[in-house]
């Protein structure tokens, strides 16, 4: 697929997907959604990729939905509302995650959002469905919906409290105030804050280390455990863990995990 609104690069087992409308602060369009979906699904299927980074070109991560989308909503509200739920063509995705943007939780590889500048509205929501969020010192976050006469879309009201806690989620959603990188780190919205200088290379270095030093199979299974666990009780989560642990004992990655430790050498995991 030829990309017009994103950039896609693979290096050292890390795929970097870059939203590429810098003159619009990477405001989200339908075409961008199609291209991001194709790129991430392609990276998920590519054995040469072990970690995925989602970032934005220029001065921002994503300033939300493009205004052309919002004005189109006003003119075509019923048709637009019908498109807010299930993503088409995702029959291979578990039913629990077969929703717009929530399908990112089913991608069997870690997704890191590398956020600089604004992550607002829809851009903010999309970052929540990434597994980790790294912010630059200049990153800024806002739900914004209450200032647009809108509500918590795409599962925001379910996802955000699970990341930052109920009191912080309520304040962010009700006020739509802008939070800086320091505040985002304080409430647990982001995993870490990195200097603006060499921000993306620093995130890529973290991703390369993750790709090189841990079992891709372990990451795949643990990601599934984590997000299914949000929908399970303790008994169900315990049973799934027991089942997966038993399966792990017969894998090549388990054998390699023991061997490289005993032999005091770098791991050579295959994901099998």
Structural descriptors:
single chain, 272 residues, alpha/beta, 2-enoyl-CoA Hydratase, Chain A, domain 1, Lyase 2-enoyl-coa Hydratase, Chain  A, domain 2, 2 domains, six-stranded mixed sheet, three-stranded mixed sheet, 11 helices, 9 strands, 43% helix
Write structural notes for this entry.
- By secondary structure, the protein is α/β, with parallel strands linked by helices.
- The chain folds into 2 domains: 207 residues, 2-enoyl-CoA Hydratase, Chain A, domain 1 (Alpha-Beta Complex), CATH 3.90.226.10; 49 residues, Orthogonal Bundle (Lyase 2-enoyl-coa Hydratase, Chain  A, domain 2), CATH 1.10.12.
- Helix content is 43%, strand content 14%.
- The protein contains 11 helices and 9 strands.
- The strands form 2 sheets. Strands 1-2-3-4-6-9 form a 6-stranded mixed β-sheet, sandwiched between helices. A 3-stranded mixed β-sheet has the order 5-7-8.
- A hairpin with a 2-residue loop joins β1 and β2.
- α5 packs across α6.
- The longest helix has 16 residues.
- The chain starts with 5 loop residues before the first strand and ends in a 10-residue tail after the last helix.
- The mean pLDDT is 91.
- CATH H-level superfamily title of the largest domain: 2-enoyl-CoA Hydratase, Chain A, domain 1
**Rg, Cα atoms, Å:** 19 Å
Approximately how much helix is present in the residues?
40-55%
Specify the structural class: alpha/beta
Oligomeric organization of the protein chains: single chain
Order of helices and strands: EEHEHHEEHEEHHEHEHHHH
Known CATH architecture of the largest domain: Alpha-Beta Complex
* Head-to-tail CA distance between termini: 29 Å
Strand order of the largest sheet: 1-2-3-4-6-9
Stretches with pLDDT under 50, minimum 5 residues: none
Q: What is the top-level CATH class of the largest domain? A: Alpha Beta
Beta-strand content bin: 5-15%
CATH topology of the largest domain: 2-enoyl-CoA Hydratase, Chain A, domain 1
Number of discrete domains: 2
What is the mean pLDDT? 91
Query: How many β strands by DSSP?
Result: 9
Basic shape: globular
Task: Quickly count the helices.
Answer: 11
């Amino acid at each position: 697929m030829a990309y017009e609104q994103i950039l896609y690069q693979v290096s050292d087992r890390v795929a970097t997907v870059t939203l590429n409308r810098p003159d619009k602060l990477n405001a989200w369009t339908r075409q961008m959604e199609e291209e991001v979906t194709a790129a991430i699904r392609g990276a998920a299927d590519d054995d040469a990729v072990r970690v995925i980074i989602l970032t934005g070109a220029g001065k921002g991560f994503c300033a939300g939905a493009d205004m052309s989308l919002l004005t189109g909503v006003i003119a075509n509200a019923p048709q637009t509302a019908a498109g807010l739920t299930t993503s088409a063509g995702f029959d291979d995705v578990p039913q629990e995650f077969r929703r717009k943007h929530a399908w990112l939780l089913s991608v069997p590889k870690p997704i890191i959002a590398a956020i600089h500048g604004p992550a607002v509205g829809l851009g903010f929501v999309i970052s929540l469905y990434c597994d980790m969020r790294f912010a630059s010192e200049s990153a800024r976050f806002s739900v914004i919906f209450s200032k647009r006469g809108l509500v918590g879309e795409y599962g925001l009201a379910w996802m955000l409290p699970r990341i930052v806690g109920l009191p912080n989620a309520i304040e962010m959603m009700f006020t739509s105030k802008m939070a800086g990188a320091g505040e985002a780190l304080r409430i647990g919205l982001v995993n870490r804050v990195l200097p603006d200088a060499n921000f993306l290379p620093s995130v890529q270095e973290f991703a390369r280390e993750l790709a090189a030093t841990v079992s891709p199979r372990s990451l795949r299974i643990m990601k599934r455990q984590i997000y299914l666990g949000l929908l399970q009780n303790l008994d169900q989560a315990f049973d799934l863990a027991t089942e997966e642990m038993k399966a792990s004992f017969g894998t090549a990655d388990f054998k390699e995990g023991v061997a490289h430790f005993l032999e005091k050498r770098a791991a050579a995991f295959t994901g099998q």
